[in-house]
């Protein structure tokens, strides 16, 4: 079974399971479902797991596949595993995909949800069109508009600017360019980085956080994958994913060079896309992660505040 087949099987297996959020004592600033907080960019984590989550594990925990809802308005990635985490009165119609792996991308789930606008990198546009046409035909629904984007392209979604950044990740399509996204509104600047092995230099340059370019344009929030767990884990995924240690060093460098300036002092960098086989429980993560990092969990809502709000 190749990686694409494995991911498809994993997604199908997880979709059949019964879901509930990871049980945790961690606290978060919550916003009423369906509302838009005027004080910042609202991120709701629908799923925080990597591809090897196939349901509740032997520790009793569950992470859905990685997806976020932004401002109760649009999605970044979405699979059947994430559907039950959407607020009941929220009906997003736009989705941005990071890449074509089945733990992030599922055309049928998007069509069922009522997605009308899709953004993805031009390098796999033709594959996606075929997938969406087949899904729409099967469901008897309209094919959404599918817009191919290039690295550096910015798109406005109801006043929030979304810019495509290059990620360091490989897929079954040899020349597919995977992506991360920079979210900007009223001075708040948040990078959502999954799946990727670190932040590539071109991504840092476009986002304005490359320390070699002065003056910089600091980000006020960072969500970054930590598939690899702690640095002692040895696994093939290290070539296209990040470890907790790498995220910590990234956060520290950005802080010390003035490229990460959160409005709330002490705001952590949030971890997502955590592999079941390489991470402890949520409670263990809360207790043992470096102080500048926080493990997100399914259902967590975070407001990245606007400067001066």
Helices and strands in order, then pairings?
Blueprint: H1 3-15, E1 40-47, E2 67-70, E3 74-76, E4 94-96, H2 107-113, E5 117-121, H3 125-139, E6 145-149, E7 154-157, E8 160-166, E9 179-185, E10 188-193, H4 201-207, E11 221-225, H5 244-256, E12 269-272, H6 282-288, E13 293-295, E14 301-305
Parallel strand pairs: 3-4, 4-5, 5-6, 10-11, 11-12, 12-13
Antiparallel strand pairs: 1-2, 1-14, 2-3, 7-8, 8-9, 9-10
Provide keyphrases for this structure.
single chain; alpha/beta; 14 strands; 7-stranded mixed sheet; Metallo-beta-lactamase, Chain A; disordered N terminus; 309 residues; 6 helices; globular
State the gist of this model:
With 309 residues, the chain is an alpha/beta fold. It is built from six helices and 14 strands.
